[in-house]
Amino acid sequence: MSDRQSLRQLIRQRRRALSQTEQQIAAQQLLAQCQQHPGMLAAKRIALYLANDGELSTLPLIHWLWAQRKEVYLPVLHPFNPGHLLFLRYTATSPMTQNRFGIAEPELDVLQVLPHTNLDIICTPLVAFDETGNRLGMGGGYYDRTLAAWQQHRLGPKPLGIAHDCQQVDAIPCQSWDVPLPEILTPSRRWRFEVS
């Protein structure tokens, strides 16, 4: 586990070192990738995240999705089921709050909750990835739990990782609960993987 923690620290430092200009360019390049992505074009309900700690910004993408009349959902820490996520509809007027990790999320409103199985795509943040689609997250296991049914039965929304190019590493030390991703978008490339 210490290898994983060391890798997290290294890659988080690497992405935090990107300048504001580099971050803005990367966000625009991500948008361009998504504007040509068949799955994104076909999807109606897309889960995204708001960038934190140097993550690749999804704001240009979110604004474009709204303009395409697509529904955007954000993860919210489940209030009664620790370690799990809810997905709430996100609009330009959604009241926001900060969760215990200091990450912005929509205020909990049961009328805005969508079961994650009804999403078309879940865009997952990640700390690092390798060339076989293994994903290293922040260590809470939230997305691994959310994507467990997809991993076992290919049921529910397709996961799509989002990362800066600098977050690619040679290999990730994996655990049994890790869910490898079938696809990852970076500013420069669309990665597709054969995941078992």
Can you give a write-up of this model?
The chain has 196 residues and is of the alpha/beta class. It has a single domain, classed as NagB/RpiA/CoA transferase-like (Rossmann fold, 3-Layer(aba) Sandwich). 29% of the residues lie in helices and 22% in strands. It has six helices and twelve strands. The strands form three sheets. The chain has an eight-stranded mixed sheet. A hairpin with a 4-residue loop joins strand 11 (183-185) and strand 12. Helix 2 packs parallel to helix 4 (59-67). The longest helix has 16 residues, at 20-35. The two termini are 23 Å apart. The model has no long low-confidence stretch (mean pLDDT 92).
Keywords:
single chain, 196 residues, alpha/beta, Rossmann fold, 8-stranded mixed sheet, two-stranded antiparallel ribbon, 12 strands, EC 6.3.3.2, ligase, magnesium, ATP-binding, 5-formyltetrahydrofolate cyclo-ligase
